[in-house]
Amino acid sequence: MSKNPTLTEFLKNSEKIAFNRQHRKIINYNISKYNEEVVKGKKQFKNLAIAKKKAAVIKYRVLSELERYLAEFEKNFEEKGGVVLWALDERDAVKEVLSIAKKHRAKKVVKSKSMVTEEIELNKHLEKNKIESVETDLGEFIVQLAGQTPYHIVTPAMHFSKDDVVKQFHEKFNISENSSPEDITLFVRHLLREKFQKADIGITGANFLIADTGSVVLTENEGNGILSISLPRVHIVITGIEKIIPSINDLNLFLPLLSTYATGQRLSSYNSIISGPRKDNEDDGPEFMYVILIDNKRSNLLSQTEQRRALSCIRCGACLNACPVYKNIGGHTYNTPYSGPIGAVIAPYMIDFENYIHLSFASTLCGKCTEVCPVNINLHELLLHNRNKAVQQNIPSFYERSSIRMMKHYMLKRHRLDGASASLKNRMLNYFFKKSWGKRRKLPKVQQKSFKQLWIEQRNNK
Q1: Is residue 291 a contact partner of residue 239, using CB atoms and an 8 Å limit?
Q2: How far apart are CA 181 and CA 83, in angstroms?
Q3: What pLDDT band is residue 37 in, cutting at 50, 70 and 90?
Q4: Which residues neighbour 45 within 8 Å (Cβ) at sequence distance 6 or greater?
């Protein structure tokens, strides 16, 4: 894997971020606040283990019959006046959005936070076609101003401190350098209200799609999602095909689980169920509503016997907050829309296996990601499945494969290990592994006597 430019860039950026003390301070502080709230949020469940197990079973059942549930959603949604469009990949999805924009002569777009739109780089395509696109989630707005991508699935600007944000707004809008977070929020609120009022199209993602009612569920904390839905004449939902849940009755399980593991809340502040465009007897809502269901290589993941479970993810971000690797190297280092453990599992299938499989090796396999997942995805085991597949495809370098083969040969038999002196073993370790051990770590030394030898000596001395 050493010739992989994506891996080379990953290692370079990892080293840079891991030794940035200011970054470590900001991330540890923000995640510690999250951890405090999650402990409180979990108290609402009488039996959390059963809730997680039930959610996992529902999501896995949907994946097993995905085609049926998607067809049911399409039928019920279109009966309510909405339009469902299918996109095989990023190109198809962008083409559909631009086609809708052209049809409605749209020049201004407001967006609620959506990882799928980040996945297809929608803002870039809209800008290229001279359509203004404004992120209306505060964190996304901050990141957009900085010309960056989201750092975290739930908290896009987690890597910014309060002072970083104030400095940015002072440079962009000339507001006071002594502004408080409340001042910043009020300023953005006033700025975005005008954007909402003038927008031709509102674009959102979907937290869930309900098959039996043909509805889109959006959960958020700022109200920007509701405004993106209700004020523009046109509402476009762009979402992955895996977001389906069978029934509206399942929301009383999934909404609390998502809010608890995403932010530590019992329930998010705003929860919307949208079932098509505005009816004749309704006062607000869009005149036209479209749902773009995107595959974008999700079928690749679905075809994997084990790894398909990753499509059960409800995008709470809990695995990122728990992961020691993520907390050290940061979200941008992954160079994917989805970072952390979940990103390390799905990126090879959704982007390019050979160029992104290194993410599956960037893990301690501590199992914390699996422990905190609200839908019981066995993430650390899926990382191992990815690694195994990489070895089967001969993706690791010849040098790496040869080294492991040699180690296996000697370690399988005790007499082979004992046949060489400690000094020879140390020379061999230095020759083959010193570079891969890292320049900041000292390679451990093999002691003169093995544990077996020390044990025999101790017994003989009794």
Answers
A1: yes
A2: 40
A3: very high
A4: 51, 256, 260
In this predicted structure, the answer to whether residue 1 has a pLDDT above a threshold of 60 is no
Query: What is the model's pLDDT at position 399?
Result: 75
Residues 150 and 266 in one domain: yes
- 344 is in which domain, residue-wise? 5-11+299-392
Say whether both 332 and 258 belong to one domain: no
Nearest residue to 151 (alpha-carbon basis) of 297, 380, 320? 320
Q: Is the pLDDT of residue 2 over 60?
A: no
Other C-beta atoms lying within 10 Å of the C-beta of residue 403: 15
Q: What is the mean pLDDT of residues 275-296?
A: 94
Start-end of H helices in 264-397: 298-302, 318-322, 324-329, 340-350, 353-356, 358-361, 368-372, 379-392
Let me know if residue 215 belongs to a domain.
yes
Taking a C-beta distance cutoff of 8 angstroms, is the pair 355, 299 a contact?
A: no
Q: Which residues sit opposite 28 in a β-bridge?
A: none
DSSP letter for each residue of 319-337: HHHH-HHHHHH-SGGG-SS
Looking at the fold, whether 344 and 433 belong to one and the same domain comes out as: no
Residues 110 and 144 in one domain: yes
Domain count, the chain: 3
To 5 degrees, how large is the angle CA 62–CA 63–CA 65?
65
Q: Which pTM value belongs to this model?
A: 0.91
Predicted confidence (pLDDT) at residue 108 exceeds the cutoff of 50: yes
CA distance 379 to 363: 11
User: Any idea which residue has 């777009």 for tokens?
Assistant: 109
Confirm if 228 and 133 have CB atoms less than 8 A apart: no
The whole-angstrom separation of Cα 340 and Cα 324 is 9
Considering 392, 424, 452, which residue would you say is the last residue of a domain? 392
Show which of 296, 326, 357 is a domain's final residue.
296
Q: Which two tokens stand for residue 15?
A: 């080293």
Q: Which residues of 447-458 are buried (b: 16+ CB within 10 A; e: fewer)?
A: eeeeeeeeeeee
